[in-house]
TrEMBL record:
<feature type="domain" description="HTH lysR-type">
    <location>
        <begin position="47"/>
        <end position="104"/>
    </location>
</feature>
<dbReference type="Pfam" id="PF00126">
    <property type="entry name" value="HTH_1"/>
</dbReference>
<dbReference type="GO" id="GO:0003700">
    <property type="term" value="F:DNA-binding transcription factor activity"/>
</dbReference>
<keyword id="KW-0805">Transcription regulation</keyword>
<dbReference type="Pfam" id="PF03466">
    <property type="entry name" value="LysR_substrate"/>
</dbReference>
<comment type="similarity">
    <text>Belongs to the LysR transcriptional regulatory family.</text>
</comment>
<dbReference type="InterPro" id="IPR000847">
    <property type="entry name" value="LysR_HTH_N"/>
</dbReference>
<dbReference type="InterPro" id="IPR036388">
    <property type="entry name" value="WH-like_DNA-bd_sf"/>
</dbReference>
<protein>
    <submittedName>
        <fullName>LysR family transcriptional regulator</fullName>
    </submittedName>
</protein>
<dbReference type="GO" id="GO:0003677">
    <property type="term" value="F:DNA binding"/>
</dbReference>
<dbReference type="InterPro" id="IPR005119">
    <property type="entry name" value="LysR_subst-bd"/>
</dbReference>
<dbReference type="InterPro" id="IPR050950">
    <property type="entry name" value="HTH-type_LysR_regulators"/>
</dbReference>
<dbReference type="GO" id="GO:0005829">
    <property type="term" value="C:cytosol"/>
</dbReference>
<keyword id="KW-0804">Transcription</keyword>
<keyword id="KW-0238">DNA-binding</keyword>
<dbReference type="InterPro" id="IPR036390">
    <property type="entry name" value="WH_DNA-bd_sf"/>
</dbReference>
Length: 340
């Protein structure tokens, strides 16, 4: 995002004011010989934003004294500043006999545009004060956000090389990839096949069959045995649903679904209540109820975990370097979060 200096913003706004005032009320003759942008540049060398502020506030508050009190100046100082503004514009803003209480025709037209200048300028300055270029927006799945991101963020905070971290979750890979393509996130973290950016693989996620602990010792991991159990599945937009259909089809068995659930967290809750078994990322079981266990199907199911980037800004480069660091990857792998 490009931020212009306040002087440039003010000059552009002043050009808007002068070009919006009716032709017969525009700047005085000494400016009319130049083009409108040049008029704005000439005028802006003499006109200040504070003069606009004084004028707009005096009109809005209906009193020069009230406006002066707001800015902490004397009424005479404010009147002098507005007089200098009138001289620069070449027109009176207030009727001479109204003691700066009644606007002239030019003053009324000018006030409408000057109000926009003041509001826009203050808005631009507030944006400049609050805009944070150091925010790193990370898009990922709900499971990775809950299980993998906490230790990663802990390392990021420890290095003190990152500002604010914004973690956003997406229901499926399509939504996550689209967010990266549209620029609403800086990086996409997860098992994505195709994205509009570059992939930095840092590990492999194992998919396992979650079951109740009292069922674990009776399972051998074969699809022929697993197919005889009731299953908890996912909606058609889930990548895991596609993987389950592919693996069971390859084994020549048909999966019977007792219920379909919207996400991994709901699936695990249903498994815990004995509704059936389900395929989940192994990391999702870390820290779960002791009533939950898992078995790896035969053959083992894994998929790549990668950090996907589109634009390599400095904070994105630092994040890529951190997440692909072998020491950190070994620690995360030892914790059971993924394989390397």
């Amino acid at each position: 995002m490009i931020r212009l200096p306040v002087e440039v913003v003010f000059t552009n706004l002043l050009y808007t004011v002068t070009s919006s005032v009716p032709a017969d009320l525009q700047l005085s003759a000494r400016y009319r010989k130049t083009s409108m942008p040049e008029q704005a540049l000439l005028a802006s060398s003499a006109i200040t934003l504070r003069q606009f502020d004084y004028f707009v506030s005096a009109v809005r508050l209906g009193s020069m004294s009230a406006a002066a009190k707001r800015f902490g100046v004397t009424p005479s100082a404010m009147s002098h500043s507005i007089g200098a503004l009138e001289n620069s514009l070449g027109h009176k803003l207030f009727s001479p006999d109204s003691r700066r209480s009644s606007l002239t025709k030019f003053g009324r037209e000018f006030f409408t545009q000057a109000s926009n200048v003041v509001d826009s300028a203050h808005g631009a300055m507030v944006m400049g004060q609050t805009f944070n270029e150091s925010v790193l927006t990370i898009g990922t799945s709900p499971t990775i956000a809950r299980k993998l991101m906490p230790p990663i963020i802990g390392r990021m905070r420890h290095t003190r090389n990152f500002g604010t971290i914004d973690v956003r979750t997406f229901a499926n890979g399509y939504q996550l990839s689209s967010a990266l393509g549209h620029g609403s996130i800086d990086v996409a973290l997860g098992p994505l096949d195709k994205t509009p950016g570059q992939a930095h693989v840092f590990g492999f996620e194992e998919l396992v069959v979650a079951c109740r602990s009292d069922l674990r010792n009776r399972l051998d991991g074969s699809w022929q045995q697993l197919a005889r159990l009731p299953w908890i599945g996912y909606g058609t937009s889930s990548e895991i649903a596609g993987i389950l259909a592919q693996e069971s089809g390859r084994a020549g068995v048909e999966i019977r679904y007792a219920v379909l659930a919207p996400d991994v967290a709901t699936v695990l809750s249903l498994v815990e209540h004995g509704i059936g078994v389900a395929v989940v990322p192994r990391m999702a079981l870390l820290g779960c109820s002791p009533q939950l266990s898992y078995i790896s199907p035969t053959p083992t199911i894994t998929r790549k975990l990668a950090l996907h980037t589109k634009d390599m800004s400095p904070h994105v480069e630092r994040f890529v370097k951190l997440l692909t660091d072998l020491e950190l990857r070994k620690k995360l792998s030892a914790a059971g979060l993924f394989e390397i």
